[in-house]
């Protein structure tokens, strides 16, 4: 399994070598042997960790699972590669960002520039079968990413967690809000953005919190 060792934090590899991690590895190998198409490419399964080292994490934006259509998923929650049509949820994120901070919407949906500033763009499930959303939810990825959240919660201070939608909000129980900032809103999808995502001002609130704790703000 490509990238089965992650140079991000010592405890991460303990998660991957656990019983759940071994089950995950077996599941992914089985999927490949069945010639199923998995997104993103295995080289990008741990891309979020490669672009945002543990010591640099200041904000966590939690997604559910990767985009399931051709060419979209590249290992970062809500992000798509340059040249790919911006998905509706990300388009709404850009609308809120413009309303909140006056940032003109990017013509690209590639969020690597956020990741390189300390925004961990983490999906709860890191792979998906083509055209089958949620297909890898029971694979073991959730144990792994919950473990990642536990590590951040325990070993860092003053991290901003942006939890959008009911699925992400469930992760709030893993986070100590006495030492971190947890911001919640509805999901930015077209079905729910008007029910609380628009107007949440999470980008300015995150930067205000980072500034208050003498951390460099994010150039959204």
Automatic annotation (TrEMBL):
Domain Uracil-DNA glycosylase-like: 50-210
Major subcellular location class: cytoplasm
BP term (GO), one: base-excision repair, AP site formation via deaminated base removal
Catalytic activity: Hydrolyzes single-stranded DNA or mismatched double-stranded DNA and polynucleotides, releasing free uracil
SMART domains tied to this protein: UDG (SM00986), UreE_C (SM00987)
MF terms (GO), sorted A to Z: uracil DNA N-glycosylase activity
InterPro entries per UniProt: UDG_fam1, Ura-DNA_Glyclase_AS, Uracil-DNA_glycosylase-like, Uracil-DNA_glycosylase-like_sf
GO cellular component: cytoplasm
Function: Excises uracil residues from the DNA which can arise as a result of misincorporation of dUMP residues by DNA polymerase or due to deamination of cytosine.
HAMAP family reported for this sequence: UDG
Name the UniProt record assigns to this protein: Uracil-DNA glycosylase
Gene name per UniProt: ung
